[in-house]
Amino acid sequence: MTDRECVELLQWAAPRLRLRWEGFRRVRGQVCKRIGRRVKALGLEGASAYRARLEADPAEWVVLDSLCRVTISRFYRDHRVFDALREELLPELLRGARSRGESVLRVWSAGCASGEEPYTVAVLFRFGLLPVFPELRLELLATDADEALLDRARRGCYPPGTLRELPPEWTARAFTLTEEGEQCIAPELREDLSFRCQDLRSELPDGPFHLVLCRNVAFTYFAPPLQCQVLALLVKRLVPGGLLVIGAHESLPEGAVHLERAAGPLPIFRKPAE
């Protein structure tokens, strides 16, 4: 399958999956390789034959949907975002929670892939916030539509290169290097974290949450009407004054529910207090 054939296939198929082709432009190589392998495994001639297969077999759409999930991630990705959360925004949230007699910081990582993002939050809380707020604890939920990725996340072991943006002093405390050369997250950093298989397009946890991270999923790959629907549901699950973090190269859909920028140009938004 040529790149052009794959692009044309994605442009045709994406709307039926409630996705937008434009989100795949820069990462289509990963997706096209998977589709090419699928076409070969089915013994088909090429993109046109696979399109015919999709038209004839509704079950194949489920397979194609799984092939379109982009899994690029790393720890402390977009470090300025996590620096702002650690240094200013989360301490402010925690002081407010403490003043109200609350004892739990509730966080949701939506589209967590193989776990780098939620484990980053766990490390940040344990080493960056807990020393200042020892009376508070973390309750962290991570969701993804791909059960295979969640299995990798539960295992919690990663190539060293994925940790290159994490503060080195935290890496030394949070990970153990195995004989196979992997870095495995310490058991105590798993205690407050749970993983759940959910597709953001159809199912969301109840909440409420103080912090929701929805990065490089909904506002990159979802079709615009679905983006608006998902955003409204995300905001509904935030406490008043809660924070929503999106991807560094993402923007919220036009006409979206009102949110305030919480950190200048960084992609961090605050739900207004009631």
Question: Would you give an account of this structure?
Answer:
Helix 5 (79-99) packs across helix 6. With 274 residues, the chain is of the alpha/beta class. It has helices at residues 3-13, 28-41, 47-56, 59-67, 79-99, 116-129, 147-155, 168-174, 218-221, 224-236, and strands at 104-110, 137-144, 157-158, 175-177, 183-185, 193-197, 209-213, 238-245, 260-261, 268-270. It has ten helices and ten strands. It folds into two domains: 3-67, no CATH class; 79-270, 3-Layer(aba) Sandwich (Rossmann fold), CATH 3.40.50.150.
List SSEs in N-to-C order.
Answer: HHHHHEHEHEHEEEEHHEEE
Q: Give a count of the beta strands, DSSP E runs of length 2 or more.
A: 10
CATH superfamily of the largest domain: Vaccinia Virus protein VP39
In the sheet with the most strands, the strands line up as: 6-2-1-7-8-10-9
What's the architecture of the largest domain in CATH terms? 3-Layer(aba) Sandwich
Compute the number of helices.
10
The computed structural class is alpha/beta
Overall structural domain count: 2
Shape: globular
Q: Classify the beta-strand content into a percent band.
A: 15-25%
CATH class of the largest domain: Alpha Beta
Q: Largest sheet, described in full?
A: 7 strands, mixed
